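WARN no homologs supplied; continuing
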Amino acid sequence: MKNCCEYLELLYAIWWVGAVAVPINCKLHPVEVSGIVDDAQARLIFTDGGEVFAPDIPLPGCRELDREDMGAFESIASTALATPCLRQADDLAWLFYTSGTTGRSKGVMLSHGNLTAMSLCYPLDVDPVSAEDAVVYAAPMSHGAGLYNFIHVRRGARHVVPESRGFQADELFGLANWLGNVSLFAAPTMLKRMVEQARRQGYSGEGIKTIVYGGAPMYLADLKEALKTFGPRLVQIYGQGESPMTISALSRKVIADRKRPDWATLAASVGRAQSCVDVRILDPQHKPLPPGRMGEIAVRGPTVMQGYWRNEAATRQTLVDGWLLTGDVGFVDDAGYLTLTDRSKDVIISGGCNVYPREVEEVLAQHPGVFEVCVVGEWDAQWGESVVAFVVARIAGTLDEASLNAWFVERMASFKKPKKYVFRSELPRNSYGKVLKTELRLWLKSSANDTRVP
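OK structure emitted
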C-alpha cells in the first residue's frame, strides 16, 4: 500500500489479533512482492489494488484485501476482538525485508521488545516528542519512516499523510506552515530536493520542528546548504533494518554549531552510540579495536533483531557472540563519535591500497557542477580494481574528466582518483531511494568503451 491512514489502522489491528506485520513497499515489482509474500508465508495481504502479484507465481493460502473495498474492511473491524491478544517481548511483531541492493531480500525478525526499546530510545537520543507534535509521512511508511509512528503514538501526537501520499517538497512546506511542530524523516536525496524547492519559493523552515535524516551518505556540501536553508532543525540517525533507527545519533546541537573547530569532522560522523546499545569496532577476527582504528561496526542491545526469517545460515553469519555485525566499516574517536567509511563489501582494493568510495564521493560532491555522484570498483588487470565515478551534472554537458580530475587531485591522494567517469542523467535507485551499486557494476561489465551515457 502507498502511504495512507488505513496503513496505521491495519498495522495495529494486526498486532491486536496477535499476528505479525510484513510491510512491503508498493513500488516493488510484482515479482519482488510475490517473492516476499511467499517467503513470509503470509496469509492476508492488504493492497491498493492493481497488479500486486506476478501472475505466474502461485501464492496458495494468501488472501488479498483491496483498500478500496471499504465494505470488507469495515466488516472486519466490526467483528474485531474485544480485547487484544497479549504478546510477550520476545514474540515476533514485524518482519522487515531488507532492500536487497546486493541480492535477494532477507526477512529481518523484529520482536515487540525490539520495537519497544527503539521507541523508548528515540526521545532520549534523537528528539523529544510531545502531544503537540505532528509526524508527516513523506517517505514510505513500509520502510524507516513508518517506524516513527511508534514514538508518536506513545505520546499521543498527530499523524499526517500528505494528500499526494508521498514526497512533494512544496506540499510538505504547506503542511508545516499549517500544522506547526512538524517532524519527518528524509533521506539525503529528499533533503536535497527540499533545499532546492525552499530556495525557489523563499521558504526557510517555518512550522518544521525536526528533520531526521539517514539511510544514505549525507555529504558535507549538502549538509551546509541544508543548514543555511533550515537552520538548527536537523538530526542524523544511523541504524539498519537489523537494529532499526538505534545504533547512533548526531544531535541537532552538534550539527548546527558551525563555529566549532572540529565541526566538519563531527558533521561527517553519525554521532554517538544511542543509550540502549553498545557499539564497538572489530578486526577481521572479531576482536575489538581501540579508538581511531578502522574495522567492522558491531552493535548489541535490546533493539537488535532476533535473526533472519527462515535463514539460519545468514543469522549465524550476522549475529556473532551476541553482536550484530553490520557490514559497515568505520571507526570511533576518543570522544565516542562513530564515523562510517563504507560498506565492507564496497571497499575498493586498488594496487593493494584500500579506497573507500564514500571519501571519493565526498570530494567530488563538493564540486559546484556535480549534482550527484556514486563511486564503485571495476576489475582492473593491472591494479586488481580501479575507481569509477558515476556522475550526474547539475547542467548536462558541463563536466568532463579533466576538470573533475583537477578538482580531485587538489583535495585527495592521486591514487584514489577515479580512473573513469561515467556521466549519467540520473542514478539507478531501489524503491527506498538507495543507489543500486550492483546495477552500476553490472553496467560496467557489459558496457562498451563509450562512458558518456544517457
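Residues 57 and 292 are 50 Å apart (CA to CA).
OK
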